[in-house]
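Suppose a colleague, Dr. K., hands you the sequence of a protein chain of 287 amino acids and asks what its three-dimensional shape might be. Before reaching for any lab equipment, you can write down a predicted structure in token form. Begin with the sequence itself:
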Amino acid sequence: MMEEKLKQIGDNTSIQTMTPISGGDINQAYYIKTEKQEYFVKANRNTADDFFQVEADGLERIRSTQAIAVPEVYYYDKSSSNKEMVLIMEWIQGEKTATTEQQLGEQLASMHLTDRSAQYGLGKPTYIGKLPQTNGWYSDWVEYFRDHRLQLQLDLSVKFNRMNQKRRLKLETLIRDLDKYLPNQPRVSLLHGDLWGGNWITGQAGKPYLIDPSVLYGDHLFELAFTELFGGFSEVFYSKYKEILSLEDYYEEVKPIYQLFYLLVHLNMFGEAYGAVVDRILKKYIR
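The predicted structure, expressed as tokens, is then:
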């Protein structure tokens, strides 16, 4: 089957190596080498028809900024027809150099400055991990963040039975009063949307690449807050980022709320192991 997919992108040579790659929670992943080229391939039998198309579109939107590199997408299935869907991309491999994280910080800041929008959000649904992510265009960041980030995760957590009554009441109160804490009109930037340490990789000559986006237009501090949540970014990354795009003085006040969204995503995907930290953030704002 994989050789048939490769033929659709003009590679009619035989597969020499096809090796599973570990590390993903959602898809199966493979390194494939043909007589012509090397590829990175994702495969999934249990996902929506547009799952890989959304990823490809997000990568292309980032590529169009010409600010930071992403892998080239060669092919993706648009309909599962109850069969395995695949996404075929450029194989990226390299070692970090002394300037890799410097480049990452500078180039991410450039992306946040380069591709601007008049509104917040996005015109079509995406995914965050394996969870569906609704979207829409909004002139008010707080309204978008409330409706399509926190409220959506609250609704899912109730559906998945992740919310005890105390947690739910505090989160509902925070959502109701969100405009007390977040800016209504921050700078509008194109965001990767799921930028933790595992979603950037190193290519030849130490060049950084972004992968697995969940793009939106929003407050660049939303992106920075997530980079701090699980690590994977050095001090030089942050210092070089701030040389290009400074952080607003309210960053430390809004950072826990921005991180709360990603913790709710993890709570919904992986369970109560993330409940205590969610509760700590809610307690910070709602007594």
